[in-house]
Design a protein that fits this description.
single chain; alpha+beta; globular
Amino acid sequence: MTHRPIIVLLLCCLLMPSAFAQRLYDGSGRQIGRVDAERFYNASGQQVGRIDGERVYDASGRQLGRIDGSRVYSASGSQMGRIDGDRLYSASGSAMGRIDGDRLYDGSGRQIGRADGLRRMQMIVFFYFFM
């Protein structure tokens, strides 16, 4: 008896993210988007953008901005915000939100979303550019 099919199946399960695990929900639990690798989709399944390294693009390929370390910039190069740990701030320094595990909160502490299986940077890109 060979174990090759079992090993291949286990590797596929470990290396390939499930479609369910890449979804973003609003505060009431409705799906508002999903991420497939570095592409972002709205709830209808239409691509709304993508990330390539530190740059963020809309669905037509126009650059929306970039994230450089802890700073978030618009396409024109002006600072839109900054990231300090799990807290998200506007360019003027006011609290815009925070990430706590798989949950997103606005500046007043109200939960505005939940992300299943998204990496922190994907959550930040969705928060600043697609919410």
